[in-house]
Design a protein that fits this description.
19 helices; 2 strands; globular; mainly alpha; two-stranded antiparallel ribbon; 1% strand
């Protein structure tokens, strides 16, 4: 099994995803007329919304908060440090590039999730890649395969990985046993996820802005403390990306190392094109009431995750008097950097940041898995089994080294991302049509609204009473 999993990961992560995600991001960027750059203000306008939603869904801001809860995890703290160690400062430049084109991909997949959403047996909105694959492409088997891969990777294994990160950080900083940490995190997660997606949305809406805000504030303080060195750091990032600056520390390769590690870590962190965030994007009641609106919201999520939060980690490390190496990397490198800036408080701050980043990832990931399980036909009893399994994986993950299982989750995520990329490219004509409809109305000074009866030539699988 290890040999098979390693082979699949080599195919998915060495070829399909690295090049496929980039190519799809560039494709949508060009085909949508650079929508993420020319209409950046629209993202902020759509996320503000009115906050008034019907009981079938959640607000645009809550959808953004839940998607950020999943996106902003240990990859923003440990993953960036690993990218710097293996790829040098230039890796950050390639992180930025993959995020900027990934915003178009995130926009497209979330637009489709909104367009093809349905109401479940309790009247709540459900949607995501499984729904637009089944209803837009008529490929139920692909949709089912996608759902299983998502439940395995995001619902189960990645939550064990997040719990492991929490347990290691808390044990290292406060000396609390990993078993006690695992049980506490599972109990806390249970309080949230047993309340369903509305409870997850309310929790994310409260925690995520504070969590990300404090982390960005720490980065701003570091910038101000070292303002004279900032221009040199930024210049170094760009020069290193193109091999114009000598490699330092633990960097093991030149331009290719910077590019591959930056792209890999950027994709893993912001999840654009993975097919994860559309699961919560579909639950939102968009404001304006148009599928493009939630597309803009989730594009903003990619910007916040990578351009803001990942950059904050990179800046704090690069401005510190620490040298990345094979011994000093990951969380340890980030902790050493903040200890250099803030003394002993830096270690504690990173441990607390990891706790909240990883905890919110657990509840965000669960919401995706629940959506996928409902698509597969599960009722209340199936959802209950999933919730118990998630909590069990949290405790197990806190106690175990999860490298082998993590490789399996990588393969599952690679499979779901591949299926999703194929689907959104095949449905790209629909994305373009719906986007033009939104921008045309906005240009005419109207509040955009989507009425499916005005578009008889597209999207036969759309639930018409939602978009009439």
């Amino acid at each position: 099994m290890d040999a098979i999993i390693d082979f699949l990961n080599n195919i998915f992560w060495g070829y399909v995803l690295i090049y496929g995600l980039l190519a799809v991001g560039i494709y949508f960027t060009i085909r949508l007329g650079f929508v993420q750059f020319l209409h950046f203000r629209e993202m902020w306008r759509c996320v503000k919304g009115s906050g008034e939603v019907d009981r079938a869904g959640i607000s645009p801001f809550q959808a953004l908060a839940v998607s950020l809860a999943s996106r902003v995890g240990t990859g923003n703290i440990a993953g960036v440090a690993v990218a710097l160690t293996l790829g040098g400062p230039g890796a950050i430049f390639w992180m930025w590039m993959v995020a900027l084109v990934g915003m178009a991909t995130a926009y497209s997949e979330s637009l489709l999730a909104q367009l093809y959403k349905v109401r479940d047996g309790q009247g709540m909105y459900r949607g995501g890649p499984a729904y637009y694959i089944a209803r837009g492409l008529g490929q139920n088997w692909m949709a089912a395969l996608f759902s299983v891969a998502l439940i395995v990777s995001f619902g189960l294994v990645f939550n064990a990985v997040q719990a492991n990160s929490i347990a290691q950080a808390v044990e290292g900083s406060f000396g609390i046993s990993t078993l006690a940490v695992g049980i506490f995190v599972a109990a806390l997660s249970g309080l949230i996820i047993f309340g369903g997606i509305p409870q997850i949305a309310r929790t994310a809406q409260l925690i995520v802005p504070i969590m990300a805000g404090l982390y960005l504030l720490a980065a701003v303080i570091v910038l101000l403390m070292n303002i004279g060195a900032v221009p040199g750091i930024l210049t170094g990032i760009v020069k290193s990306a193109f091999g114009l600056q000598e490699a330092v520390g633990g960097v093991t390769g030149g331009v290719m190392a910077a590019m591959m590690n930056g792209i890999k870590r950027g994709l893993f962190s912001n999840e654009a094109g993975m097919g994860s965030a559309p699961n919560i994007a579909a639950v939102a009641v968009p404001d304006p009431h148009h599928p493009s609106s939630q597309g803009f919201v989730q594009a903003l999520g990619v910007f916040i995750d990578t351009i803001l939060v990942c950059t904050a980690t990179a800046v704090m490390i690069l401005l510190a008097d620490v040298m990345p190496s094979s011994e000093l990397t990951g969380v340890n490198l980030t902790q050493a950097a903040l200890a250099d800036h803030f003394g002993g408080f830096g270690h504690i701050f990173v441990a607390i940041a990891i706790f909240f980043f990883a905890f919110t990832s657990i509840i965000g990931n669960y919401s995706y898995a629940e959506n996928a399980l409902v698509f597969l036909g599960a009722g209340k009893s199936g959802i209950m089994v999933l919730r118990i399994a998630v909590l069990g994986m949290v405790v197990w993950g806190a106690l175990q080294a999860v490298s082998t299982v993590f490789n399996f989750a990588d393969a599952s995520m690679g499979l779901m991302a591949t299926i999703n990329l194929i689907a959104i490219v095949l449905l790209s004509g629909t994305v373009v049509h719906v986007t033009r409809d939104y921008l045309r109305q906005r240009k005419a000074g109207q509040e955009p609204e989507f009425h499916i009866e005005k578009h008889p030539g597209i999207a036969p699988g759309v639930t018409r009473d939602i978009w009439n």
